[in-house]
Amino acid sequence: MKNKRLDLSYSQMKWETIFRRLLIFMGVVLVLIVVGILITLIKESIPSVKSSGFGYLWSKVWDPVQNIYGAYPFLIGTLLTSFIALLLSIPFSYAVSIYLGEYNPKGWLSNLLKNSIELIAAVPSIIYGFWGLFVLVPIIRQIETKIGVAPYGIGVLTASLVLAVMIIPYAASLGITLIRMVPSALKEGAYALGATRFEVIRSVVMPYTRTGLFAGVLLSLGRALGETMAVTMLIGNTPTLAHNFKDLIFGPSNTMASVIANEFTEADHEQYLSALVELGLVLFFVTVIINLIGKRIITRFTNN
Amino acid sequence: MDARIGIRNTKSMLFKGLIIFLAFLITLPLIVVLLYIIKQGVTQVNWHFLTHVPTPVGEPGGGIANALVGSLLMVGMASVVSIPVGILTGIYLSENPHTKLAYWSGLCVDVLQGVPSIVIGIVVYLWIVKPLGSFSAIAGSCALAIMMLPIVIRSTEQTLRLLPPSLKEAALSLGVPYHRVIIKVIVPCGFAGILSGIMLSVARIIGETAPLLFTALGNSYLSYAVTKPMESLPHVIYTYATSPYDDWHNLAWGASFILLMFVLILNITTKLITRKWNIQL
Amino acid sequence: MEHTVVSASKFNAWFGDNHVVKDVSIGIEKNQVIAVMGPSGCGKTTFLRCINRMHELIPGATAKGSLKLYDDEVYNMNPIYVRYKIGMVFQRPNPFPNLSIYDNVVAGYKLNGLKMAKADLDNIVEKSLTSAALWKEVKDSLHKKGTFLSGGQQQRLCIARAIAMEPEVILFDEPTSALDPISTSSVEQLFHELKENYTLIIVTHNMQQAARVSDKTAFFYLGELVEFDNTKQMFTAPSDIRTQNYITGRFS
User: The sheet that has C61-69: what strands, in order across it?
Assistant: First the structure.
């Protein structure tokens, strides 16, 4: 019995070491995956960077047949859809954060609303795209006819509308948590001075959570910039940039993600493929930086 | 004075009204989308639909058996890799929070969470499809596995961090070796949290289209070959939704309904698990 | 006197640069109850955790010097084997929440993968629970989860769990500080019975408890072992002025 235990303890020690190394190995693998992604994107972008140089992001013509690649229209398309979506979503995500964080943090109604909002994020983007294409597009087309712009139906506005709904949960669920973290002593202090609920929210809750809520908006923005399927199906996919403001908002356009989705399998030569990979690289950097800033703000906020 | 208080109170009430209105208004699109998909899709779904492959334009019948098999196969393969790797990495992060490696791995999890899925698609194309010379189910599940990893890692890490350190000490003081402490005590105690993370990650990747576009591609025939292109639920929706034929649209509605049911069931079950075990993610 | 079970000479321990146990030398004899007391932060718990090598599990923790179990140097032994031989009971009761009472008692066997016959396990469970004065209370609910028990019962379950491994020494880290007075007295009662078969080392910040339960008392102050003597002697005529100050409440 005694010896059996002693023997066992030695074999256990061996396994313990193996297990600890396995855990470390897993940590390393994760770093390798991300570094690998970065290296691959950079390496495959090199041909495009060499031929297009810095003009890549500023030149306005994207013509794979002529081997001319300028990503400016897609850059504008991406920024435009994302920021319109963001502007549309902010009032809603703030309202949800305030309602579930401050007015009604507990109970079945609160849970139901919170779960519904999480469900918005759970529905696959392809389903939003499909629904948008068959339900929203005809409605938008009617509206466009009424207000006298070219009735495309599909376009920046349509994509932004759907995108706005899709990104609300990211800012909202963070906002709820943060607003619930506001110390009640602060709020009670203001109530004791005779402030109304609105005044407490405006002058205590919002200032206290401002940076955190901003981080939530950044996370939403990161989602919006990288969102592919719904946008691809709704934005109309045109490689040229509209010339007037009306067409810029209502007319078809293209985003970086939708160009990649549409053209990647058609890229029949090195240069073309590389130009698309470079789009991916730009997208990678932009979304990752926005996300990391957002996360950094959140950690700083929750640690204080 | 009284009038001013009255104005302030009215303002407060109006604000509350506005907040409630906006907060509930955003559930409207969700409800509209869900109901529309259910209405359009439920009539399409029957046994034939689930067990047959799509027919060419004009021929009646046809189903999504190829997409169903493909999705389950690719999600399954992705899970087989991602679940153990994700759990082990999550354990590493929760057990060694202050090491340099943990800092960098943690950062990488954040990065992976933020990478747009289409970019993952590009990378896996360059890693697997290009060298092998063919779109394949393996490439598809590899892309899905990368999408899945950060969710499994974070949920494991956060669940295990909530467990009291005394639990680990109790086991260690009995001479239980570290790996057995983790496998037999720590992981079972955090099981519900880890499981819900896994379910959420599956729900997430089963609807991912973008990373499959240039990896698994699609296939209008039933295929089990993992080195060949393979159809999937979201991809079949994309192809058929953007086609000009009504028959094909109907097929896509049916596929959307099935996909939505998968996602809803996974999400609701996860909610029930976390509520029962009282775990916060 | 009898055989010495645990002995330390010039033993030191650190947390990073923080020197928490300084040149401790002590000899602990078999079948005695040793109380280790001192103000908080004096290194008593760290010293206790060094004895079964739990100290080294904290990142940055190191130890140096000689610490022996009988004639074997603890720091040359396999840590897993050390922990088989030296059991430990913690400040807060910590039964495994995923295991039944029965499985909690034999957790040391099951979690280690030691294969045993069912009859042997039954035997161990009954014997250990009886020694921990818990058998009568739980014998009809052995397959309920251990976390359903009261705090005092949980702590006795943890003691049974340590006993089940048949250790030479059982370490107690402030075992009653999270318990109510009635549970405390039931655990203290147990110490008298347990010393028939085991050697007990009890860290406590409660002087009355040290006086009640121990044969010998060690007084730690700022990482040093100030005095180690028979409990009676220590509480009536301490030889060191610091011990006297502590006992009379000059500092705490």
Answer: C18-29, C4-15, C61-69, C72-73
d(CA C162, CA C175): 13
- C4-15/C86-89 β-pairing: unpaired
For the domain made up of A54-303, the CATH class stated in words is mainly alpha
Contact A113 B256 (CB under 8 A): no
Structural domain count of chain B: 2
CATH class of the domain comprising C4-247 = alpha beta
For C61, phi and psi rounded to 5 degrees? Answer: -85, 135
Q: Do B176 and C111 touch (CB under 8 A)?
A: yes
C181-224 confidence digits (pLDDT tens): 888 988 898 998 898 899 999 999 888 899 999 999 999 999 99
- State how far the Cα of A261 lies from the Cα of B210, in Å rounded to an integer: 7
Same domain membership, residue B21 and residue B94? no
Q: Is residue A20 less than 8 Å (CB to CB) from chain B? A: yes
Give the type of residue at B95: E
Instruction: Indicate yes or no: CB of C107 within 8 angstroms of CB of B175.
Output: no
| Residues linked to residue C227 through DSSP beta bridges, in sequence order | C219
> With bands split at pLDDT 50, 70 and 90, how would you rate the model's confidence at C90?
very high
DSSP state of A256: H
Report whether pLDDT(B5) > 90.
Answer: no
CA distances in angstroms from A89 to B9, B27, B123, B223, listed in the order given: 28, 13, 31, 42
Task: State ipTM.
Answer: 0.93
Contact list, C74 vs chain A (CB under 8 Å): none
Look at B19 and A103 and tell me if their CB atoms are within 8 Å: yes
* Rounded distance between C-alpha atoms, residue A225 and residue A220, angstroms: 9
B218, closest residue in chain A (CA to CA): A265
The three-class DSSP label of residue B99 is coil
What pTM does this model have? 0.91
